[in-house]
Amino acid sequence: MSFSLGAQAVAEESALHGLLKNAIRIGGIFDLGYHEASILTNDRWLERARGLPQHCLLLAYPHGLDDPAKAAKDVLPEDRNIILLRVIRETALPNQSELVHLRAEHTDRSITNYYRESDPPEPKTDVLTKSVMQQAAFRCRVLGTFVEDDNGILVFGKDVDAVYAAAGYVVAKPHGSSLQAIVDHVELPMGERPNEQHGDDAPNADLPDTDTSMKVGVLRYSSSRRREQISAKDGRQTEVDVKVRPKDFVAHKTAVFGMTRAGKSNTMKVIAAAVHLYSHRTGTRVGQLIFDPAGEYAYANRQDYTALSQLGDDVRIYRLGATAQDREKRIRPLSLNFFDASQIEGCWSLISTFLGDLKVQYVKSFLGSDPSRAPEDTDSMGDKRRIEAVRAMYFAALVKAGLWPAISWRFNLPVNQHTRALLDQSEELDTGVQGTVYLSLNSRQLLIACEIIARRASSIARATATARKKFTVDDVEAVRLWIADESIGGSGDPGVDGVVEMVSPAGSAGGWKQLRAMKPYHAANAKTDFAPSIYGDLARGRIVIVDLSRGGEQVLQTCAERVVTDILTRASQRFREGLPPRPMQIFLEEAHRLLHRDKFNQASQSSDPYVRLAKEAAKYQIGMIYATQEVSSVDDMILSNTANWVCAYMNNASETQRLAKYYDFGDFTEQILTADDRGFVRLRTDSSPYTLPVQVSKFDLKMVNDVRKMTGQAPTEPSYDFAPEHGDTDNYDDCPDPDEIYDDGRGARPSAQADESEA
User: What is the pTM of this model?
Assistant: First the structure.
């Protein structure tokens, strides 16, 4: 790209001059390098500029560039640029020792005169000495150079192309519109720039961009804000708006680091709102999946009565135990109906996951039964009945474990005349009309029938050759569908013995008791498998909040893994078939448990859904926003491929040192360690050429209604759908009072004599 450094760069209306229009001089550069520069200033200039906080952005420019008339004749065309600096620390002047001596002497006289009542309180100091004493120097990071292209558009290069020993650069502190222009400036990131080599495109390169940006906060240089607030009253605003380009977050990885209560969840809500705005403005369906371990996203905030679900009508919530009333509010059950044939594959996947680590043989045999096979997929009547027999025993095992279907549920048990005769021993079963090949049974009847069948089948299968002689042909024929061994008249289905043993376990085997762990996942009113249901919502560009605040951790984590696995499986299938990807965003709280380095070093990493998500998601246009307290807890491969960074307060120096390895975060390590203001973050997005210290806006009703307005929706009212509160009183039912035990219920400690008698 060629740059025009002629008349346009010095015209009063030029972009370069616009950067200097609202900037107050504070000094000049006396030491310039490619990476750092030292500036000279004094107390008078700093007072006029309302101070110079650490991380303050400064502009350095040649003498005369701020005056269009002088610039045309006094500034060489190649020097018509502005260097952007960031203050990183104070530094020493060449005569620093002399300055320190003068200041110490002045302070000593002030203290001495204070105690001499006859002398004035302040010592007399000549103007020249006082001017020298007020000199100060600061070391600054060279962030890059602003110039104008052929069209007069401001562009930014992330370095300087010349270093002069005596360049005479003036340094100014920008404010107002000048500072806003610096903060607003973006450069297309690698992979999105025009004329780049094809094949190096970013994951979101083919997605549309939008001129609409979203305010996420204000520029904030330091924890102390008094001078900046006074400066704003003087018309020199430095807390200007910080906006983001929403496309930066789509199909990319975003890291949110910080201690608990540092504002990570609020920041993630703001990011979700930005992506929601992008989706609406571009017409691109971008589904957003938020795993909510604490109910911070699914429920309204009690302080400001705002919920993420208020962003629009396309928000769906999934939670354990969702009722019919919940479904009317588009809250769906995070559960499966284990007795729904259309959901059996997902249910069997859950069972296989839970029992897969058990090494006992009967569990292995049970997992080999695979009741998820569809009877209607086979043309053979014999195969169909064998699969139906396995399913009958499987459903009976679930009922015995405490999982119950809807009252109206029934199952057709495959039978013959011998099976009918066997079941006639129960008075609770009606064996129906002779000649029919099925018995229609409810759940209770099915359990009774299967227990009778299982006991007979197990007795025959386990019997020795001699003992089998006592069983007649009719006995075997009655249960042949539930015996695998064809040599004794069985059906030949190798998995049937395992499922029979779950209903009628041998010896000390747990059998059906192993399935009790499935109870939290089951809901008789669940109309569909929640994993593909969630995918269907995401594919249509909806925001899905998975409420993980209710239920045991293992149950909820398994649900989350099922959802991620289903998303990746479907995305991978579309990729192989050459179908266009469906952009999605997945938000992960407590990411240190999911993305730690040990997982990536394990041989089984390919089966871990979160490892797959980190490695494969980009090519499917699936973005990942992960939040955690520690940088070191996340694998290096993920960090190296993270496009957007949000870093809040952290209290561990080793963590900030690790963070300092990325971009220019090394300039902010001391502030990250000390400034514990909630929502005060260091922000670096994919299109931002430099990191900015930002006070993130509160996700509140105003932000929600601002987004709704930009997406063409009417404003909403405060929400009172709060997370359930714990009771105010504690009855201690779960823990007996030790006083009542040791004091023998008398409310007083037993006497010493009683102690001796007990001894």
Answer: 0.82
